[in-house]
Amino acid sequence: MATHAHSSHHGHREHEGDDLIHAAQVALEAKGERWTGMRGEVFEELARHTAPVSAYDIADNLSSRRGSRVAPNSVYRILDIFVANNLANRIESANAFLVNTHPGCRHDCVFLICDDCGTASHFDDDKLTGALRAAGEAAGFSDVRPVVELRGLCANCA
After folding, report:
1. Coil, strand, or helix at residue 99?
2. What is the DSSP letter of 71?
3. ∠121-125-130 over CA atoms, to 5°?
4. How far, CA to CA in Å, does 141 sit from each of 89, 112, 133, 137, 144?
5. For the chain, which ranges sit under pLDDT 70?
6. Predicted TM-score (pTM) above 0.90
7. Which one of 20, 123, 130, 158 has the largest count of C-beta atoms within 10 Å of its C-beta?
């Protein structure tokens, strides 16, 4: 199971392995959504990756594992449910997804994405994301959700 580096501590517990899958199921069901076999398979595949992964890659990997085709559109719908319920984050610049290692918790992350190896990590900066949220609200937006991505080279690739 892949883990994700975090530059600051959250006020909540990071999960991994079977504990992460169980926490995701509990969080999703608490929101009134069903945890189906397919949703479980998509979440497990997403959780295997340290780099953002596309719905097409998830569909291909699941298709290979199952021996039958899994449609990318089905995977997209499931990933949208995961993002809406804070089980995954969408990495906008890569049109890809990254598992949320603290399912159900909503906070604004600053993502760090390596342009060489593709790994992604995140840290929280409430001052930065709070300022962005306030600027959006001052411009008349509601339910503002800052999406901040920094691209560069990770320490291993630099």
Report:
1. strand
2. -
3. 130
4. 21, 26, 9, 5, 6
5. 1-17, 104, 106-107
6. no
7. 20
